[in-house]
Amino acid sequence: MSREALLKKGICPRCGQPFRWIYSETIHGRAYLYAVHEYVDENGRKRRRKCYLGPADSYEYVSKTHDLEFYGMTKDDRYIRYLEEIIDLFDVDEPVSTDPEDFKKDFENTMKMRSLVKRINNEVEERLEKIIQTMISDVKASIDVLKRDYANDPKALELVKELETLDEEIKKKKLIEKYRYEEDTLKKLVSKYLYLKNKLKIFNI
Asked: Among 47, 55, 134, 176, whose CB has the most other CB atoms within 10 angstroms?
């Protein structure tokens, strides 16, 4: 489970134990985050301890000695930011040196990066497939629940029609087979799905 998912569930990504709240402490003008745990000691007294989660923004001093800006574990999109910064660092226009040692190093590093990019792409595509399959299954399940539990509710029946329209559109676009290539279509369908999911909240679905 990702660190973000653990935090949302109230689990500390540092020690794996439940925490009561996130505590922010400002030092020299910068905010640092801690997960606060409560427990009872051997004498029956209630105690507290803190697990450091990193800065609220970025690691200013560590980042100064690197080409990347490092973020605390509460930053949900930090991995995407890292990839964006790495891409910016990879200068394709830099001249290729013909010095044997430099050429060898450049070639080997580029081949390693090529391999990593392929691996990242495969992982991302698998994750995307899982996300899309979850959406497709959830649309069908939501239709079934509304028809079963809210058969006499006009709002529910209207929502069933909207969900069925989305389900038909998914089938028409052959999303299961083409999810890797239909990026614009995919974004539009996901947007419609999220819109309907918000409407489903009144039915606790």
From this structure: 55
